[in-house]
Fold:
Amino acid sequence: MESFKIISRSKELGSTKSLLKKGLVPGIIYGKNTDSTKIAFENKILKKLMEKGGFYSKIIDLDMDGKIEKVLPKQLQYHPVTDKLIHFDFLRVQDDTKVNVEVTVDFLNKETCPGLKKGGVLNLVRRLVELNCNANNIPEKLEFDLASSEIGDAVKISNINLPEGVQPTIKDRDFVIATLVPPTVEVEEAKPESSEEGADAEKTEGETKDASSTDKDASEKDATGDKKEGSSEEKSK
Structure:
């Protein structure tokens, strides 16, 4: 395993602010029945380790003045305004160190899974599973084979083979990690048809209204005409 050089943090190195300006992040290593050690880690290297994934579940070998320390990342602290990393906590790992870590689940043979081939969807209930184990025996990931899974099946923690000495932190129930659910059926919208019907209705209503208006105008015209003719007759009399 590759080791990474760290610096023992002393007063000569300066304040936290000066360390950050130099591209170093201050931190601390602690462990059961051991003294805490203040250190500084190069920011660029620390970021690369964080970007690899599974940062909190991987043991890191640190080289401090030729002495190798095995540690497990436990906490990172960021500046509230700039969001820059300003401090870290590492747990010193010993032979009997027990830790709780979150590990991802990898689902195998998705392309041949009967349920998925029928249109089913893999619904992840838990993306990470918290495990308790020896720090030197942390599994990189858990695996489940979907080769014979059908729609309606549920993947529970009891369906996954855990390495010896590794246990889930939840022990009071056989919790679900994922389910294979039926395909989502989209209901066809009838809006276009409704719109056409609405348009036709409006058109019909408009035509009826126009016809009524025309009839009304004609009636009024006839009535006016009759009135005028009557007036002329009375005048001639």
The helical segments are 16-21, 43-51, 114-117, 191-236. The chain has a mean pLDDT of 82. The longest helix spans residues 191-236.
